[in-house]
């Protein structure tokens, strides 16, 4: 069975500090990996995705993530956060098997303090 | 223009009632989804349709019945509502059934009393 584990349920950080949100996955087959962001009372929005190729992927709003196959991780990073980055962040995976069903992690709440 | 829209945004109803949530996308996508997000923010897929054909049907009580009259619309009908059905329901769409980039609606908060 496939699964996604987001290691931190909440991450408080000061404005302009760097942040890393951690994501590990479990799968016996090759996967596609995603990070989505959910602002309060809104739907999810895709931040970035890894499908193949370069393991460092850049997304919107200055976020990037690195796919590490040996450690089965896909951590999200931003060098300097803003108050407006306060939101819930979801790591997700898909595979070619199972009809491309998207499996989401439990989410990490990023809280940026002034 | 709203890409994926859902109505209603809020739905408060009593146990045992039947209710529907509607979803429409104007992106020209082939695939649409229903997700349920519980009170702990956990998000789980319920159904997926590709060009009006059901392609993903998770272990969901058969009180939940999706209907796709055309590829731009996916509605969710729920019979005999229970307290445990209280959640936020999200509709989403993607260009193809691979779903590598899904566009989510704003959600419908269902409260069953």
What does this structure look like?
The complex is a heterodimer of chains A (114) and B (113). Chain A is mainly β. Chain A is built from no helices and twelve strands. Chain A has strands spanning 3-6, 10-14, 19-21, 23-26, 32-38, 44-50, 56-58, 64-68, 73-78, 87-94, 103-104, 108-113. In chain A, the strands form three sheets. In chain A, strands 2, 5, 6, 10, 11 and 12 form a six-stranded mixed beta sheet that branches. A four-stranded antiparallel beta sheet of chain A has the order 3-9-8-7, with no helix packed on it. Chain A has a two-stranded antiparallel ribbon with strand order 1-4. In chain A, β8 and β9 form a beta hairpin. The N and C termini of chain A lie far apart (41 Å). The model of chain A has no long low-confidence stretch (mean pLDDT 94). With 113 residues, chain B is mainly beta. Chain B has strands spanning 4-7, 10-13, 19-25, 31-37, 43-50, 53-57, 64-70, 73-78, 87-94, 103-104, 108-112. In chain B, strands 2, 4, 5, 6, 9, 10 and 11 form a seven-stranded mixed beta sheet that branches. In chain B, strands 1-3-8-7 form a four-stranded antiparallel beta sheet, with no helix packed on it. Chain B is globular, with a radius of gyration of 13 Å. Chain B starts with a strand and ends with a strand. Chain A binds chain B through residues 32, 34, 38, 41-46, 49, 51, 88, 90, 94, 99-102, 104, 106-107, and chain B through 4, 40-45, 48, 55-56, 58, 90, 92, 97-107.
Mean pLDDT value of chain B? 94
- Helix fraction of chain A, binned, reads under 10%
Which stretches of chain A are low in confidence, meaning pLDDT under 50 for 5 or more residues running?
Answer: none
Oligomer: heterodimer
State mean pLDDT of chain A (0 to 100 scale).
Answer: 94
Q: What is the N-to-C order of secondary-structure elements of chain A (H for helix, E for strand)?
A: EEEEEEEEEEEE
State the end-to-end distance of chain B: 34 Å
How far do the termini of chain A sit from each other?
A: 41 Å
Classify the beta-strand content of chain A into a percent band.
over 45%
Q: What structural class is derived from the secondary structure elements of chain B?
A: mainly beta
* Proportion of helical residues of chain B: under 10%
What is the approximate shape of chain A? globular
Largest interface: A-B, 21 and 24 residues
Give me the number of helical elements of chain B.
0
What is the number of beta strands of chain A? 12
Radius of gyration of chain B over all CA atoms, rounded: 13 Å
Question: What gyration radius of chain A follows from the Cα positions, in whole Å?
Answer: 14 Å
Order of helices and strands of chain B: EEEEEEEEEEE
